[in-house]
Amino acid sequence: MKFYAPPPAFGFEDVGEGRDYTADVVVVGAGPGGSAAARQLAAAGMKVVVLEEGPTTSRFRPNFGQTMRYHMQEGGGMVAQGSAIVPIAAGRGIGGGSLINSAICFRTPDYILDKWVSLLGDERYSPAALAPIFDELEELLGIGPVTEETAGKNNELIVRGTKIKGYPGGLIRRNTPFCQGCGLCNYGCPINGKASVNFNLLPEAVNDGAVIQADVKVDRVLVEGGRAVGVSGVAHHPDTREPGGRVTVRAPRVVLSCGAIGTPRLLHLTGIADVVGPGVGDGLHLHPGNAVMGVCEEDIYLWKGATQGAFFEDPERLPGVLPHAFTAPPEATAVTLLPMMGDMKSAFELMPKLCGMVVMISDKGEGSVGAFSDGRARITYSFDKNDVERIKAGMVATAEVLLAGGAKQVFGIVHGTGFCDTAEELEAQLSDRSIRDFTLYASHPMSTVRMGRDLDAGGQSVGLPGLYVADASVFPTALGVNPQVTTMTMGTVIGRSIAEAG
Amino acid sequence: MAITRRHLLAATAAAAAAGSLGVGGLMMRWWDQPVDAPWRCLSKEEIDFLEAMADAMFPAGGTPPMAGADANAARFFDEVLSAMEPVQAKLLRLLFNALDASTVPSEGGIFSYLPVDERRAVIQEWLHAEPAEYRMAAQSVLVLVGTAYTVHPDTAHYFGPMYGCRYGA
C-alpha cells in the first residue's frame, strides 16, 4: 500500500486575471477515473495538467451542509426526473467522488466484463487482462474487508442475519486502511483513514510531473480543424464563489473525467455532443436504491461503524440486486421517521434502535443527460417495470435478513407504508406502491458516453479526434456493483492506451 | 449512500411543487425576491419561514433539550445557499416561499404566522401529500432544517459522541 501526502495544487489565487497552460494532455476532473488516467500518462513521460472544479484542499466537517457546499457537484442539487424523482450525488474536489463515497470496493464482475468484450470486440477488458490492474489497485489503495473491530452493530446485525438466511455476503471490502469506524465517509474522512485517490493515484501522477489546477470549472472544449485542442474554464473562489480569471489549457489530447453527469453536460454545453458521438448523454444508468430499516430492542447507532460495511446477494433469486448496509446522519434518519412518529424529538429517541440496509439494483431503466442554458445538468430517467419489481423483491429479502439478525420490526422508506412485524407484511404493503412512492437515491451514474457507441475501445471519441473520456460514462452497460474500482481500472486502461498511441 | 443526499432539494422539484400549488403568478415575484442585508441569500420572509419550521420541528425539552427556535436555522441556510449554483439557490428560495404560502387556502394564513400546533400538523400533511414531488420537496427542506439543528454547538455534542472518532464532538 502507498499512502502519500495529498498533492499540491494551484488554486483560485494563482489564476489571478487569467492563466494559460500548454501540455501534452489535459485531464478534466481529479476523481477516480481522471486520477488513474493522469497517473498512467505522467508515468509515460507526458506533460499532464489536471483541472479540477473543487478546492485545493478538502473541506471536511461532520455536517452535510459543508459537504454539499464544497464537495458535491452543483452543490448537491442534481436530480433526475421522469417516472420518479431520483436525487443524484456526484463528488467534487481533488479526489472527486472518492472523497465522499462509502469506500466500497468490488471488482467488475466477470460476467459484465465478458459482456463488454463481446460488445467491444476487445480483449483488453477481459477478466484475465484486467486482473493485474485489479491486483495493483487493491495493493496500492490498501483494499481489504471491514474489520470486526470497526464494523459497528448495524454491520454485525446484517452479517448475522445474512448467515442465518444462508445468503452469500458478509463484511464488505473497502479502501480504508486506517479506518476507525467513525461512519463519516460520506462527509469526508476526518482522520485520513480512507485511501481516496488524492492519497495514492494523484500524488504518483504529480511525482511524475503532473500539475493540478483546482478551483476551475471548465465550460468549453476547444475544437480546431476538427480536433479537440484543449479546454477552458473560469476560476471560482472556493468560499465565496466569486468568479476570477479564465484558465485555458491547450493540449492535443483532452481527457474528460467529470463523471457520467458532468462529462456529457460539458459536451452538450460546448455544443459538440453530436460531433463526439451518436448518443452522448443517452443511456444513463443510476443503480437506484431504496432503504429498509429495522427497529431493535438494543441500541444500534447505525451511523457508527464502517460506512456501509456489510452486504448480501442472491444472484439466482435476486439477479442484479445488491443490498448493503445503510448509513445516514441523525437528522436525515429522523426525518424518515417523521411521518410515522409525528415529531422529531420522538424520532430522535427511536433512532439509536434502528438498523438498516439500502437495496441497490443494476437498472435496466435508462435516462439522459443534457445541459440547461445556465450550465446545470438536465437529467431525465425512466424506470423499467422489472427494476421496480426487483427493488420490491430486494426489500422483502432485506427485511428477512434484518429480522433474522435481531430486528423486531421493519419498515420501508416508502410513502403509504408503516411498521411491519414480518417480511410478508412488508411485501403486502409494497405490492400496490408505485415507484413514485419510493424514497429513491442514486450515487452511481454511468454509461452516458459509452465505449462501443460514442467512444472506441481506447476511450477516444468516434467523431472528434483528440477527445477522450475516462470516467464512469464509458461503461457500455450498467455494472451491478459499486463502481469506483471499475472506474479507476478503465481510467488506467485508457491512460495507457493514450500513452501508447503517442 | 447517505439518506441525506436523497432528500437534497431538487431545483426542478421546487418548481414542480410551486406549480402544483397553483401560485404561478406569485412565482415570478418570488423568483426575484430581494435579499435583506446583512443576509447574503435570504429575504426576511424566507428567514421567518425557516425559523418557523425549526420552531415547529424541535420543541424545547427532550433530547437534545434545545428548542428549534434557538438553532439559528436561517443562518445555516444562508451559508448553504451562498455556495450553491445561483439558479439552484433561487429555486430553493422559491420553494420556501411556495411552502409558506401553501397554507393560505386551507389555514387562512401563511405558514410562518400559524400557531405552532398548526404548523406541526401542516408538516405532517406535507409528508403525506400528493404529488410525490411535493412530498420530496418538503422532506428536503425538513432534512436541511434538521441538519441546521444538529450542527448547532448546543446540540452537536449530543450527536458528535455518536461518531466513533468523536469528530465534531
Q: Can you describe this structure in just a few lines?
A:
With 502 residues, chain A is an alpha/beta fold.
Structural write-up:
The complex is a heterodimer of chains A (502) and B (169). Chain A is an alpha/beta fold. Helix content of chain A is 31%, strand content 21%. Chain A has helices at residues 12-15, 32-43, 64-71, 110-120, 127-140, 148-165, 201-207, 259-270, 273-276, 330-341, 344-350, 385-405, 423-430, 484-501, and strands at 18-22, 25-28, 48-51, 79-82, 86-87, 144-145, 169-171, 173-174, 211-213, 216-224, 227-236, 243-250, 253-256, 282-284, 289-295, 310-312, 321-325, 354-361, 366-371, 377-382, 409-412, 467-469. Chain A has a five-stranded parallel sheet, covered by helices on one side. Chain A has a five-stranded mixed sheet with strand order 5-4-20-19-14, with helices on one face. In chain A, strands 1-12-11-10 form a four-stranded mixed sheet. Chain A starts with 11 loop residues before the first helix and ends with a helix. Chain B has 169 residues and is mainly alpha-helical. In chain B, 63% of the residues lie in helices and 0% in strands. Chain B is built from ten helices and no strands. Chain B has helices at residues 3-6, 11-20, 24-31, 44-57, 73-83, 86-101, 104-107, 116-127, 132-151, 153-159. The radius of gyration of chain B is 16 Å and the shape is globular. Residues 1-24 of chain B have low confidence and may be disordered. Classes of the chains: A alpha/beta (502), B mainly alpha (169). Chains A and B meet through helix 3, helix 10 and helix 11 of A and helix 1, helix 2, helix 5, helix 6 and helix 8 of B.
Strand order of the largest sheet of chain A: 9-3-2-13-22
**Pairing-aware structural class of the strands and helices of chain A?**
alpha/beta
Outline of chain B: globular
Main pleated sheet of chain A: 5 strands, parallel
Low-confidence stretches of chain B: 1-24
Quaternary structure state of the chains depicted: heterodimer
Helix content of chain B: 55-70%
- Rg result of chain B: 16 Å
